[in-house]
Amino acid sequence: MTRQMPVTGYVLAFGMWHGVAAIGCSEGSKGAAPSEGGSTFESAGTAGTLGAMAGGSGGARGSALGGSAGLPATTAGASGSVAVTGGAPTAGSANASGGAGLGDPFVSGVAPAAAVHFQKGINLGNRLEAPNEGDWGGVIHAEDFAFIAKRGFDHVRIPVRFSGHALAAAPFTIDDAFLQRVDAVLDQATAAGLAAVLDLHAYDELALGVSAEKERFLGIWSQIASHFQARPDTVAFELFNEPYSQLDTAWNDLVASALQVVRPNNPKRLVIVDSVFWADPSKLGLLQLPNDANVMASIHFYEPKLFTFQGMEWMGPVYETTGVVFPGPPVTPVVPVQAAQDAAWANQWFVSYNANPAATNPSGPATVAAQVALITAYQKSQGRTVYNGEWGPQEGGALDSRVRLVTMVRQECEKAGIGWAIWEDPVHMRLFDSAAGTWADEIVDALLPR
Question: I need a surface site. Which of 53, 235, 311, 349 has the fewest CB within 10 A?
Fold first, then answer.
């Protein structure tokens, strides 16, 4: 769901919209996930509960991401449509079709032209978002890109810790050697025929202190926008990986400010904006994106999380129950670890997991369907393309179960027109080794059937 770090002294913040306390993040600082009752499986309901969100042309839109989500209702313009511009958004402007300018949450259903490049991707995780490349066991190799392209992927998502290589004080200069390293990586991706998402990752200081870090965040993006402005449209900018904590309420304003920094040099570049609460699909409706045809919303699709992250110590003790299968129920009931029994949402999840048939099991197709329903409802109500920028079960689960989940999520994303980039890192979810010429064939064949 967020930064996938190996077990080191650096523990990361992870959230679930079940009301779980987040683990510490960023050099020992602590954070807490916002509290919301119920599990994703119980609260999301079925696609039918989301139908009102689609709305009619010109009608009220936006209130139904499930009753528990509590999202605000919004009304479209008089004509029910919003004009789309390819360039920089204009603050406060309105157009003849009744749509608003910067800050308006609606845009007509025209997919960004560059979105075609970002359909089947793979993350290069634990590499450039580490404090230093190699610190977390991952290094980007030049041969990775041709190897990835040959297997059938069309893009890579590259998490980058720009904030870790920039001055703390104005003008927040990014280290030139680091920029040259990113240049080399993008050159290699382009040479291999791969598009690339340049993702600003691991800037936890911003999430935990927006007012103190806003100027630095914008200063960093000003440099990124200037430095990479000559890149082709196969390079997309992702403003921030998994907004959380203070960004849950400050994100919309910060997005508007960041776009005003990016657009002068990159008027038509695809810009990817994650939903808040760690890019949770249930929070898509809270995004208020500008009237800009080249902005794409993004989510991370890690449900069912107690399956996906089982046994991952960096997720915290609630996730240490292993032997969880997909789909449930298990042949023999699983007794969750004490920490999971003590967390009401997790305990209830395991009660349902042990008892419910596959069709309604929380580790099963209903949970996948509920997540996809959230995304498709947003697509219909907002006219926005949505990108699944991270997903995939970590290596703690049985391989056959992981293959079944990957197959199902991939198929459902394709049906819904959702481009994706599966998570990959050399420690918890290794999918390839270009030097050895090998893939994790079972998982990758589920992604890209031969």
Answer: 311
Which residues make Cβ contacts (< 8 Å) with residue 68, sequence separation at least 6?
A: 36, 37, 38, 43
Are the C-beta atoms of residues 144 and 158 closer than 8 Å to each other?
no
CA distances from 218 to 68, 160, 205, 282 (A): 34, 16, 14, 27
Round the CA-based radius of gyration of the chain to a whole number and report it. Answer: 21
CA distances from 96 to 81, 82, 268, 290 (A): 10, 9, 22, 16
Residue 164's φ and ψ, nearest 5 degrees, are -80, -5
pLDDT of the chain, 450 residues: tens digit per residue: 434 443 322 233 343 333 332 322 333 332 333 333 333 333 333 333 233 233 222 222 222 222 223 222 222 222 222 222 333 333 333 332 223 333 344 444 456 889 999 999 999 999 999 999 999 999 999 999 999 999 999 999 999 999 999 999 999 999 999 999 999 999 999 999 999 999 999 999 999 999 999 999 999 999 999 999 999 999 999 999 999 999 999 999 999 999 999 999 999 999 999 999 999 999 999 999 998 999 999 999 999 999 999 999 999 999 999 999 999 999 999 999 999 999 999 999 999 999 999 999 999 999 999 999 999 999 999 888 999 999 999 999 999 999 999 999 999 999 999 999 999 999 999 999 999 999 999 999 999 999
Residue spans of beta strands (DSSP E) within 180-248: 195-200, 235-238
Burial 203-241 (b: 16+ CB within 10 A, else e): bbbbbbebeebbebbbbbbbbbbebbeebebbbbbbbbb
**Which amino acid, residue 244?**
Y
d(CA 214, CA 209): 8
Question: What's the rounded Cα separation, in Å, for the pair 82 and 95?
Answer: 8
Domains of the chain: 113-305+361-447 (3.20.20.80)
